[in-house]
Amino acid sequence: MRKKCTSIGGQAVIEGVMMRGVKSIATAVRDDKGDIVVESNYVTPQTEKNVAYKVPVARGFLNLCSSMGIGMKSLMRSGEVFGEDAEPSKFESWLAKKTGVDIYDIVMAISVVLGVALSLFLFVFLPHEAEVGVTALIKHFTGWELLPAWVSFLLSLLEGAIRVAIFIGYIALTTLIPDVKRTYMYHGAEHKTINCYEHDLELTVENTRKMSRQHDRCGTAFMFIVMVISIFIVAVVNGVLAFTQVPILQNRWIKFLIKLVLIPIVAGVSYEVLKFMARYDNAIVRFFKAPGLWLQMLTTKEPTDDMIEVAIAAFKTVQAMDENPNLEELRFDVKKPLKKERELMEQKLKQVNADSSEVEWILSIAMNIKRSEVNSQNYIKESELNKANEILNKRLTGMPLWKVIGNTNFYGYEIDINEDVLCPRPETENLVEKALSKITDKTSVLDLCTGSGCIAIAIAKEKGANVVASDISSKALDVAKKNVEKNEVQDKVALIESDLFEKIDGKYDVIVSNPPYIPTKEIESLDKEVKEFDPLIALDGGEDGLDVYRKIAKDAKAHLNKDGYIFMECGENQSQEIEKIFADFDVKIEKDLEGVDRIIEAKVKE
């Protein structure tokens, strides 16, 4: 009797299940928060990639190799969700650097090679050596130089029995490991889910829980079939070799190589047998299936309901993607070792002579944590790492970090910035500090060359004073408007587009300004991050850098109340010339934290 059989198969992984359909693969796991997360991708059907996948027997071995690769990759990806990916060895890192291959692929390849090597040692080499030992004893006691064909045939059966015993013993021992036992529980959930679908029942936890945790097409059953078939194929081959009575064909290493060569044939035949038996359900088929199903009692355990939910999520994802090739692929937000990623970022920053401490800022922003908390983190999520690398790559172009990020902190307030405004510097906070000493909530303030609006916002927030903020650049005023709204001082700060005093009416108690003061000839010698990413109009102060100061000095009196003040920032070695420009004012000069003359305080002479 032919039965319903889905093309979807699966495998248990770390805290989850991988399901594979004809056109897609999906792995569902529970993350460290207990949520189900899914990674999925479309794959080209094997029969479309290679005609050999349509050839009986050959397709069995090819599918086995393909399944091993996909299974190992899914297993490692599920481990990464929990940050369980180990640091690569020095050899792996060196190999990745020399070959240009991603370290993840190197680790996976080495894991596959080691896994295959262990399997060959346990299930081929050890049984073979046991046969060699028994053969030596028989020759010793009988005096035979060459064994009769019937004896070689029986010895091959003995070798096969030893192989099966090692296999069962190996599986039994693994059930004693708690983490492996949980994986076997997920294996049971995978089988129950597929059985539920093949019984035409709705995929619910309740329906799935009732299903058997054994399944015809299980890899455990496949391995058992492989061993049984290999026993008879190897026995026949050994019998034929013994029948020829050719001495070299009785050599232990020649016979071992022949067994290795037979592996693809054995796997191919076993695949066809398993595929045939999976499609039918009758007394004869059940008889031959029984040993493989019994063995699954070791490799599957009863799952919990939350494990069944994971298996159902993986199955439904594959089912939907196989039916609709336009669905979006999903990706785990896996954890990466932070130390390694941080070192790579620091090395890249050295290429542009940037301070390596900027990495802490980048990571704190990407991970949405305080800068002081970065050093206590061991892992970074892939989505956070992508965000950090996006910031880093822009920084490597020479763009200042704060413009890359799009905001900075000024006087305790978050200020958005872009290429249309200057990035506020610590010296400007000194300017605000000085101006605030003469400002109360009753003071009227004019902020010339406001740029991002940072000065006006700080004054309004700190003192509650009304501020008119002007700038010649409409683009700068767009930024200032956003910052005014962001800091909720719309009722205190009025913005106006004006070339200094050109459109300014009335008089003010305090005028504050951070005007452009770089001499034109020095613009080209500025650091790249200033010259290329700050607006020229906010930098160029004319031939000697003092053009704007002269304009302010000329018109300021008409816009200052009695006993009014002007506070301005200036460049290095400019304070004395500015003092001359403001000859009609009482001028005081304040130094910044570096001891440089930086702040100009000017008051109209009485």
Question: What can you see in these coordinates?
Answer:
By secondary structure, the chain is of the alpha/beta class. 52% of the residues lie in helices and 14% in strands. It contains 21 helices and 15 strands. Strands 11-10-9-12-13-15-14 form a seven-stranded mixed β-sheet, with helices on both faces. β10 (466-471), α18 (474-486) and β11 form a beta-alpha-beta unit. α4 crosses α9. The N and C termini lie far apart (112 Å). The mean pLDDT is 84.
SSE inventory with pairings:
Layout: E1 9-13, E2 16-20, E3 24-30, E4 36-42, H1 46-49, H2 58-80, H3 90-99, H4 103-142, H5 149-174, H6 178-198, H7 205-209, H8 219-244, H9 252-278, H10 283-299, H11 305-323, E5 335-337, H12 338-350, H13 358-367, E6 379-381, H14 382-395, H15 401-405, E7 407-410, E8 413-416, H16 426-436, E9 444-448, H17 454-463, E10 466-471, H18 474-486, E11 493-497, E12 508-513, H19 528-531, H20 547-555, E13 560-569, H21 575-581, E14 585-591, E15 597-604
Parallel strand pairs: 9-10, 9-12, 10-11, 12-13
Antiparallel strand pairs: 1-2, 2-3, 3-4, 5-6, 7-8, 13-15, 14-15
Helix pairs in contact: 2-9, 4-5, 4-9, 5-8, 6-11, 8-9, 8-10, 12-14, 13-14, 16-17
